[in-house]
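Worked example (supplementary).
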Amino acid sequence: MEENKLCWENVSAATQIPELIVCPDRTQIFMFSAITWNRHLIHYSKDAAISEGLPDIVVQRALIGNFLARLITNWVGDSGELRRLAWRVTHSALPDRDIVCRGKIKEKIDSDGDKCLICEVTAYNENDELIASGDATVVFTVNHRSS
Amino acid sequence: MDARVPEDVLAMIGMEKVRQYDVTTRDIKRFAQAIGEANPVHFDEEYAKSTKYGAIVAPPLFCQMFTYEDVPQDRLPSDGSPVEIDVPVPAKRTFGGGSSYESFQWVKAGDKIIAKSTLKDVFIKNGRSGRLYFIVVCTEFSNQKNELVAKETATYIKRI
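After joint prediction of all chains, the assembly is encoded as:
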């Protein structure tokens, strides 16, 4: 694990983040509705989704956010912390379809020892349509967050 | 075609709701499972003890599980969408939207989370598919020490 540790010195603007591919199925979408107590029918009733003009149930905005968060945390590991994630859903994501999460560094900021990275993040479906885009702020820390 | 947000909706802006939850290991494990997170620091106590966190910690966007008020089902709109965005605009279907989530501290079992949600704004934009109503809800999550652990500003879009 240690030798794969992400180093501040080794990243620069335009550094690509290793892709993350996920494929949420109906069970996962249901579990996420349950754990967040989100009872919006379009996430588990295909009939309700179709009556709203959608092709099928749709993946929750918040779950897509968690995939983008994992793109970052898988890459950063213990070297830094995800401080902020902002994302906008631009296209419905459907069950049993791959979602490809990608990212790259937009800005590397070091002000008085406070080191942080601003990363661009995107999620595409298998037809290469943009599902979501946004940005993430990663803080490289020496001191741990208080417990 | 100049549409305005109805007065009774504008009057709701600034409305706050507060609720409190106790975080358990089970909550964290189930949230991690639901998002498909395989990092054992979110569910394996022995492993978590050996890390810098010293205990199971929740994934970064964990406080999303406290975003929606646990009202009885008969108080939900007929489409089951959250009461937080149940404002009387002439648009029914909720879709898309965006979010800005900030995470300031790791959440652990035993924490008490106080979620305070505020209806921040309601505004109209005319899109290609017609008139869109944007509903902005900000939720602040604080712990038992009154420290802000996370904050989410979510934008929901409703269309006719």
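Two points are worth noting when inspecting this output. Helices of chain B lie at 7-10, 25-35, 45-49. The mean pLDDT of chain B is 93.
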